[in-house]
Structure formats: C-alpha cells, structure tokens
Amino acid sequence: MAQQDRPTLKTIATIAGLAVTTVSRALAGAPQIAPETRARVQRIADEIGYSPDRAAQRLRTGRSNVIALILPPHEEILGYGASMIRGITRALRGTPYHVVVMPHFEDIPEEQTLDKIIRNRLADGILFSCIRPDDRRVKILLEDKLPFVTHGRTELATPHPWVDYDNFAFAYRAVERLVALGVRRPALVSAPPAQTFSQHLRAGFFRACGEAGVAGEVMDGIDTDDPPEAIYRHIRARLDHAGMPDGFVCPGEVSALAVNAAWVDAGVSTRHLVMKSTSDIANFIRPRFDSIFEDLTETGERMTTLLLRYIAGEPAEDLHYLLAPPPMTFPYGGR
C-alpha cells in the first residue's frame, strides 16, 4: 500500500460515521467511550489494516506504546522466549501497546542494551530477567524513573515491581520427593551463583536436607548457564568417585538431560531425579522423571500486567507476584 493510501484515523472515522477524536479515544480504550463503540471502531481498524503512526504518536504524547523485552541467551530454559512473548502479547491484547524484543548478547555489557533504550526512549517500559541481589540495571531504571518489571527479585531497599517463581519451594519439595524414594545423598545442579534465585534454590535444598537428615551436595564448578556438554562432563567425573550422589535436583530440563546421560554412560541403573520443566519435553525423556512445572507464559502475562499498572501510576510496593509451584508430576506411579 502506498504511503498516501495508508489507513488513518480519518479513514476509520469516515467509515464509522464518528468524529476523529472519538475514534482516537476509542482505540485508546478510553472508558468514557461506550464499549460497543470501542469494539466497532477496533473491528473497523482491524478490517482495513490500520496501525498508528508511532513517530507522530510519540511526538504528540511523549509515549511510544512499546514494551521492550530484553531477551537473555538462555540455553537451560527451553522455550523461554516463545513462552514469555506468548504471555506478554496475551496481556497486551486490547491495549495500544506492542512488544519489541531486544536480544542481549553475551559479549555486550547488560547495561549497554538498557542504556540504548533509555537514551533513545525506545520503550515506555522494560521487562528483563537474570536478576542479581544488588542489580545495577534496577538501580539505573529506578534513578531514570523508566517503568520496568523484573523476572526475579533483588535485595535492594527501594521497592520495584517483580514477578518470580518460588524456587525455595521447588528445591524443598524436590528433596522431599527424593528422600521419599530412598535417596540419601541428593545433589543440586544450581543456578549461576550471582543470580538471586540461586540463593533461593540452595536455601530450599539445604533446608529440606537438614530436616530429612541427609547429606546434600551442590555441584560446584557448574551451573545451569553452562552448556550441557560441560554439565555432562562434570557429573560424569563426579560419578566415578566414592560417595557419589544417588539423586539429583535439576532446575531445568537441559541440566536434567545432561545428568541422565552421565548416569546412563556411567552404568548407574537406579536413577532418581526431580526437575523443573518449562515445556512438554519431560513427556519424552526415558525413563520419565518427576517434574515440577514453571509456567513461563503466565510469568510473561503477569509481568506485563504489572508493568501496565506501573506505567499507569500504581506504587511499586504493590506490584509483585510470587508464582507457587504447582503439584508435582509423578511418572513413577504416585506418591
């Protein structure tokens, strides 16, 4: 379509028989406009392929109507990006906002991607993950006053919006299950030590081990950010030594696959493992292991909902959500 033929607010107004200002407010979801009118205007806009002129909109309102998702180079979390985006778009449906994915590359400082968004005002709000207890990115955004929501928690005194999964509860329940299966030397493949949720995993793991009277071990030298080959080699070497673990807690499917491969190649016949799953891949692993699900689609949706509320002016201290792990899946045949 040529630029001069591009549908405009005036095009919609002519078709709908409404004033341009009414159409504009209807598309913005103004509560003063009747729901039936908003729905009719939106239907016409969809039918003729209308999309707002972002540049003109930004000049007029100071807003881009863009939500930026900074996507880390996850290997451990299967389907992370697709699941998060599915949840984000679900929350943005019916709003004037759309999502833009900003990939973070490992060879570029994390603050550089953030600074690009801030300096150029590329978004009205930001979603990001891999959170540290004293996260510099959070401090930068708090100082700049650009709305954001983190996937994970910090230990900063200033409140900020966040959504997190209860990794303490996951690790605690995983150890409980292993002990019930007869495991006496459980081991944890943990998250990167610098990230806050690693502390939550370790705390839940060791709490459950202490209460059960078993000797828990964290696999030092590897974490879930390592490639599966590195995890496999480390576990394979550990299994060649006395006092090897007889059960594993894995906070992701990739680490679980690496552990299982090391077990098989070491000739271990009895294998007990509890993993966190974020996809349906657990259904196709043999033998089938116990798993606890983390719903990343819900995470993306809740993060976006909180971000929209933050943009609208709600206080940060009211904008956080901790996702409780759902019931465990027991492929071994029950509790």
UniProtKB/TrEMBL annotation:
Pfam families: LacI, Peripla_BP_3. The keyword Lipid metabolism does not apply. Residues 7-61 form the HTH lacI-type domain. GO terms for molecular function: DNA-binding transcription factor activity; transcription cis-regulatory region binding. InterPro entries: HTH_LacI, LacI/GalR-like_sensor, Lambda_DNA-bd_dom_sf, Peripla_BP_I. PROSITE patterns: HTH_LACI_2 (PS50932). This is LacI family DNA-binding transcriptional regulator.
